[in-house]
Amino acid sequence: MSEKSNPCLRCGACCAAFRASFYWAEADDGGGPVPLHLTEKINDFRRCMRGTWSDTPRCVALQGEVGREVGCAIYPQRSSTCREFEAYTEACNRARGKYGLAELPVLVAVA
């Protein structure tokens, strides 16, 4: 998918709709790539991106305006939760709906 056709570069709704939680060792103090100062502790085993554990979540690493032009300040260092989230899914469309963005066609995997 080219950058021009990648809807994520204009969206960012997932970064401002859900809690981005992950195993604690994904933070840099556990050997992972995620900068510790951008996380908050959920419990002894889980952390989340600062700003996402809220009634109105917005990841501290999200730059730009949702639905217009966005980017991730730590894209190469993002957590597995962020790497595994996919556009063109029901979860993606739930996030987009919170911001009044049009749904994307849900892609179905062919076995």
UniProtKB/TrEMBL annotation:
InterPro entries: Puta_zinc/iron-chelating_dom
The name this protein goes by in its record: Ferredoxin
Pfam families on file: CxxCxxCC
Organism in which the protein naturally occurs: Pseudogulbenkiania ferrooxidans 2002
